[in-house]
Amino acid sequence: MMGPEVVIHTQSHRHDRPDIPMCQQGEKVTQAVIIEDDVWLCDRAIVLPGVRIGRGSIIGAGAVVAVNIAPFSVVVGNPAKIVKRRCPSKAFSPA
Hints:
Layout: E1 7-8, E2 34-35, E3 40-41, E4 46-47, E5 52-53, E6 58-59, E7 64-65, E8 73-76, E9 81-85
Parallel strand pairs: 1-4, 2-5, 3-6, 4-7, 6-8
Antiparallel strand pairs: 8-9
């Protein structure tokens, strides 16, 4: 599920050379975003390049996801942090 105004980024600008303006350095190589089954991205969540969101996770409204999220996690904030698990009986290790 996806709420309104969700943003999923797969590219960003280069910024590694201080002698060249950032706007003239081009874009980085595309990094895929993987969103597994039964994930809920709430309103205005932002997912950054290269992130995998595990099955059954909930991404809170306005969360900025910059790291992989383990399955059945509930994450909120900027940067997004795991605050709860949906299936406490399943094996869990933070991403």
